[in-house]
Input
Amino acid sequence: MINKKNFWCIIPAGGTGTRLWPLSRADVPKFLLDLTGCGHSLLRSTWNRTSQLVSADRTLVVTGVKHAHSVAAQLPELSSENIIAEPAPKDSSTAIGLAAALILRRDRDAIIGSFAADHVIQNNLLFERAVANSITAATTGAIVTIGIRPTHPATGFGYIKIGAPRHDIAPYDVYDVASFIEKPSQERASKYLASGNTLWNAGMFIARADVLLEQMAQSQPLLVAHLQELAKDWDTPQGATTREALWHKLPQIAIDYSVAEPAAAAGKMVCVSAHFRWDDVGDFASIANILSSGRKDELAILGGKHSQVLSEQSSGIVVAQPDRLITVVGMEDVVIVDTPDALLVTNKTNAQNVKQLVHRIRDSRGSQLL
Output
C-alpha cells in the first residue's frame, strides 16, 4: 500500500456502455459485468487494484441511485457513507468534483486519485509505480494525468501530447502536458505512435483536492459553488432538500474540459507515462483483443465454461448463452453477442458503431431493450 496518509481514491462508476449493447444495459451497465472472464466484474477488479493503494475508508465510489445497491453488493467492504449516489447522471466534472468536495471536508490536505470503474489494467505493480509517481507530482501543486505508452495506432482513444521532462519532480516518466488530442483517424494515430511523444489518455487524474476544485472553479465557478453546498449538506437531514434544489442546475461537462485542458493551457498539468497494459473496454473489439491476448486469428468466447460455441476457421468474439449452441464457420473478425432478448451480429471494424444502433433502437422501440 502506498505510504501516503492523505491519499484518497475516487472510483466513478457511471455510464451505460452503449457500444457494448446488448450485453451492457441501463440497469446492468458494463462496470457491473465480468467482461474479461476473470470471474468478477470490472468494478470489483478496480476495487481489488485500488485497495492495494489505499484503505477502504478512504475510497469513495460515485454511482447512480439505481446502481448503488449493486455497488454495495459487489463491494461489501465499502461503507454506505462512501457510496455517493447521484440523483441523475451529470458527467465526470460533477462525479469527481463532488467526491473531491466531500473528501476535502474530511481531510483538508487530501490528495485524490480518480480511477474509472470500467477499465482493464494488467500488471498492478507498474500501476502502483505510476500512481506513486503521480502522488509525488501532486504534492508540488500540479494536476496529474496518467498516460499509457501506446502499443498500436488506436483510433478509439484520446491522446496526450507530452512536452519537456520534469526532472524536478521525478527522475523519469513525468512530463509537462503540451495538449490533449481527440480520437484520431487511423493515419494520424499511426503518426502519433511513430512520434514517441504522444500517449493514450487513460482518463486518470491525481491532484490535491483543493487544487482540483480551484482549477475547476476558474472555468465553472457556479458548478463548484453548488458542489461545495451539496457536500456540506450531503449526509445531513438537509441533504435531500439541497440535492433536490441544486442537482438539476449542475451542467453536464466532462472533467477534460473543466479541468484538464484549461490546466494544460495554463502550464499546471503534468503527465506520468505508464507502462502497464490498459484498455477502456469501449467496444467488443476491445474485449476480443483482451481475451485473445491480441491474437488476430483467434475466436474469443465470453460466457463461462458452459458456453456452447463451435467454430471453424473463424476469428473475433462470441458472447454466448449457456443454453444455445452457436456455430461460426469461415468468419473473420466477427462479433456475435447472444442475449435472451436481443442478438447482435457485426464485426470488429464496426464495433464502435453499435452506439448509433442503440440510438435507433431508443427512437423506434423505446427503452425497454436498453
About this structure: The first helix runs from residue 42 to 50.
